[in-house]
Write a structure and sequence with these properties.
The protein is mainly alpha-helical and 244 residues long. Helices cover 80% and strands 4% of the residues. The longest helix is centred in the middle third of the chain and has 84 residues. The chain binds zinc ion. This is C4-type zinc ribbon domain-containing protein.
C-alpha cells in the first residue's frame, strides 16, 4: 500500500510536469498569434495614415497655388490703381484689392491649418511605424523562444511519458482508475494531509481517519473533496514506521 501511494505521488508529480510543459508549449503560440493580429491592424493604420498625409499634402499644394494666383491678381490690381484717375473706378478697384487680400488671408489660414495637420499625421505615422517595427522584432524573438521551449518540452515529455507508463503499469488498476477520475474532476487527484487538514479543500479530517491514514494500510480519500490523501514520510510518527 505504501508503495502504491508513493507511486501515485510520483504519478501526480509527473502529471503536473506534463501539464506544465503542455501549457508552456501553447502559451507562446497564443502570444505570437496576438502579435500577428496586432501587426495586421497596425499595417492597415499605417497605410491609412499615409493616405491621409497624401491627401492633405495635395490639398496643401493646391492652396499654395490658389494663394499665388490670388496674390498675383492683387499685385496687378494694385499696379492698375496707380494709373487710375477716375475716382469711382478707383474706389471699385480698391474694394476689389481689399477683398482679394481678405481671400488671400483665408487661404493662408487654411495653409497653416494643413501644415499643422500634416505634421500631426506624420508624428502619428512615425509612432505607428516604430510600434510596427518593435512588434515585428518581438514576434521574431517570441517565435525563436517558442521553438526552443517546444524543443525542450518535447524532450522532457518523452522522458515523462516513459516514466508515467512505467508507473501506471505498476499501479493497481482500481487505484489508477480512482486517481484518473478524481484528477478529471478536481484537476489534482492527490492531496497532502497537513496539520490534520486536506490541502486540496482545507477541511479538517476526522481524527480516526487521520490515524488510519498514518498507518498507510488502505487508500483514504478526503470525505469532502474525494482526493486521495497522503502524508509525507517525514511526517509519519516513528512509532507507526516501526509498526509497519
Ligand atoms: Zn479535501
Amino acid at each position: 500500500m505504501k508503495e502504491q501511494l508513493r507511486l501515485l505521488e510520483r504519478l501526480q508529480e509527473i502529471d503536473n510536469q506534463i501539464d506544465h510543459h503542455e501549457q508552456e508549449m501553447s502559451r507562446l503560440p497564443l502570444e505570437i498569434q496576438e502579435i500577428a493580429r496586432s501587426l495586421v491592424v497596425l499595417r492597415r493604420e499605417i497605410s491609412d495614415s499615409r493616405e491621409r498625409i497624401g491627401t492633405a499634402e495635395k490639398e496643401y499644394g493646391r492652396k499654395e497655388q490658389d494663394l499665388a494666383s490670388e496674390q498675383e491678381k492683387i499685385k496687378k490690381s494694385e499696379r492698375r490703381l496707380l494709373n487710375i484717375k477716375n475716382q469711382k473706378e478707383y474706389n471699385a478697384l480698391s474694394r476689389e484689392v481689399k477683398l482679394g487680400k481678405k481671400v488671400a488671408g483665408e487661404i493662408e489660414d487654411s495653409i497653416l491649418a494643413y501644415m499643422t495637420e500634416i505634421e500631426t499625421l506624420k508624428k502619428i505615422l512615425e509612432r505607428k511605424e516604430k510600434e510596427y517595427e518593435e512588434s515585428e522584432q518581438d514576434l521574431l524573438a517570441k517565435k525563436g523562444q517558442s521553438e526552443a521551449i517546444s524543443e525542450e518540452a518535447k524532450k522532457a515529455l518523452v522522458f515523462l511519458s516513459a516514466e508515467k507508463e512505467e508507473i501506471t503499469a505498476s499501479l493497481d488498476r482500481d487505484f489508477l482508475k480512482k486517481y484518473q477520475t478524481v484528477k478529471k474532476f478536481r484537476g489534482t487527484a492527490l492531496a497532502e494531509l497537513q496539520s490534520g487538514s486536506c490541502t486540496g479543500c482545507h477541511i479538517s479530517i476526522p481524527p480516526q481517519l487521520h490515524i488510519r491514514l498514518l498507518k498507510q494500510e488502505e487508500m483514504i480519500t478526503c470525505p469532502n473533496c474525494h482526493r486521495i490523501l497522503y502524508v509525507k514520510p517525514e511526517n509519519i510518527p516513528v512509532l507507526n514506521k516501526l509498526d509497519a
